[in-house]
Amino acid sequence: MSQIATENTAVDELDYSLSALDRCDSCGAQAYIRVTLASGDLLFCAHHGAKFKEKLFPTALNWHDESARLLESVAD
User: Which residue has the higher pLDDT, 61 or 76?
Assistant: First the structure.
């Protein structure tokens, strides 16, 4: 699923999920965390999301974390 938000439209948080095409802004690995800040969105892999969570979480407008999907694929 691919969705684009503009100034006039918003991404429905319930319908948005990260895909393999979403990449970490720090290292380029698959993103499992999307952080919405007042200045825009950041995408992180599970490692970098955990690394920056303490600093970013207090100011984040939304913290969308799908890193539990990593455990699902190990269990299969």
Answer: 61
Cβ contacts of 34 within 8 Å, gap of 6 or more: 16, 18, 22, 41, 42, 43, 44, 62, 64
The pLDDT tens digits of the residues spanning 46-71 come to 999 999 999 999 999 999 999 999 98
Distances (CA, A) of 37 to 1, 59, 64, 65, 68: 22, 7, 12, 14, 22
- Burial-class residue 28 by CB neighbours within 10 Å (0-12, 13-18, 19+): exposed
Tokens describing residue 24: 């970490």
What percent of the chain stands above pLDDT 70? 75
Q: How far apart are CA 10 and CA 12, in angstroms?
A: 6
Nearby residues of 5 by Cβ (< 8 Å), 6 or more positions away: 11
